[in-house]
Structure prediction request, 249 residues.
Amino acid sequence: MATGDTDDILTRVKMLIPFRWFSWVAPLRDAILGGLSDGGAWCYAWIVYAKQQSRIATSTGPFLDLISYDFLGRHLPRGHMTDDQFRVRIMATILQERVTRAGVSNAIKQLTGVAPWIFEPWNTGDAGSWADAATPSPYPFSAFAWADVNGLSGAGGWGSTDLPAQTYMVVTRTAFSGVPLVAGWSGTAVGQRIGAGAWIGTAAPPYQNVGIIELFGTGTSQSGVTDDLIYDTIDTTRPTGSIAWTRIQ
Prediction:
């Protein structure tokens, strides 16, 4: 017996009836009250459901779409996202820090689970310097703009004043995206034609090309964190007038 179900409501009603009127077990009375309790349980279930839909954290189905429309208009379509994916996207968009580097980084991290690598050519903190005065001569490599041939790491890349308001970004997508259960045409094993999405073969004759193939187009349903979701997140949080060159891996 759970709170609000038929048995729970029937028990609550029976406890309100004076004991001297009926015995605790009264089949005819219980049949009438049981029917009314069914209706009460149905109403209680709708009350619980309505309460659930009043918060973004617990809202589901079409009510989550209504919340998105109330706060964001038509800016954030659901597409093929599940409730959990769409909820994360809504909460990452509402009251999200914007037009800052931190805002872009936080939005991408909420979407993918991993903060992006960001390089600004105008930012000396990203580009580093030609050398670090604190490093003994004649090889002050510690703050080179990029890694040197000896394996010493650099700050990130060469800075440039010819690239104002531009950033280079690498986004790592950890959540599944694309078409489920379909891999590439072939695998990465050297000398072997092995691919879960295309075929499974051997490196030498006879080539036993047996596997799974599926063709799909733009109308095929996709799921997870897609490229469009990532690009849209960057576009709605980057500083106005800036360019964000992005690579997704």
Notes: The longest strand covers residues 166-171. The radius of gyration is 30 Å.
